[in-house]
Amino acid sequence: MYSRELLKGILKPVILKLLSEHDKMYGYEIAQHVKEKTEGKILIKEGSLYPTLHSLTHDGYLITESVMVGNRTRKYYKLTPEGKGQVASVLNELFDFRATLALLFGNEKPALS
Amino acid sequence: MITDLQAEQIRQYLFTEQLTDIDLIDDLTDHISCEIESLMTLNSISFTDAFEAARHKILPAEPFQVQRDTKLLMSKTPNIMIRKIAFIGGYASTICLLVAITLFALSSMSERRIDLARYSVQIELKKNNSVISEGNAMKQSFHGYESFDQFWVGEMAKAYDQLLLSQKFLMAAILIFAITFLPYQFYARFQKTPAEPQFG
Fold first, then answer.
1. Which residue intervals of B128-191 are DSSP H helices?
2. What share of chain A in percent tops pLDDT 70?
3. CATH class for domain A4-105?
4. What is the ipTM of this complex?
5. 3-class SS at A66?
């Protein structure tokens, strides 16, 4: 599992990317999806997932759709048109950052003990 | 699947942990419920044990931290905007104040210049033992003006304009300071200094 300092900056791009590939997802589903897709290397903690989801909703990039499951409310998160427009620029920035890191550290895994 | 009563138990637990944001409580209740259902199915354990395990796995040591972080993330943009406005306001106010002081100084210097000019004319008259009356001397050409009277009126009008402008800039400085910088100072002191979000 990666350190939380490393994960901190990529949470928004991860959420936006996932929601651009799925029509709508709820919090637990997002966390599980990331865990499975990264083979457990990226574990999104709920303490950071929900503040980020709420912040994206507040900024107008996501909207919620509530569904009752028994007597509890399940909130599905969905990209707004503004959020869809944001995905490309956020991902471009991330890819650019990855390329810049490669300039500093190289693409090969260092042979350090 | 957990029962409605058990879901309510989770919800009540979050209330006892001082969480008040209903949207967040809904999210966390559903998340914890999903985790409990998963644990109960995979490990064949009771709801109580699964709840205990899910609680430790999902929530931070202080569950209220999640709400604090949410609030912090959501108020970041307005905070930045307020700081920017306060900074620009403070800067503009300082510039206005400096211009006001400069104009006031110029106005005072003009008045002093008129006085000095008047003295110099009087001294000149005495020195030359001139028979021309002071009134006549005042009408003689002076510093590019047709007469000293004209010089005096022109310089006084300039000094008066500078003083008026200085007052306007001073008022603008005070207004900008009061509208932008002071409210920010109150706001900054009123709000508790937020910590960085405790991700993870």
1. 134-139, 148-176, 182-190
2. 94
3. mainly alpha
4. 0.84
5. strand
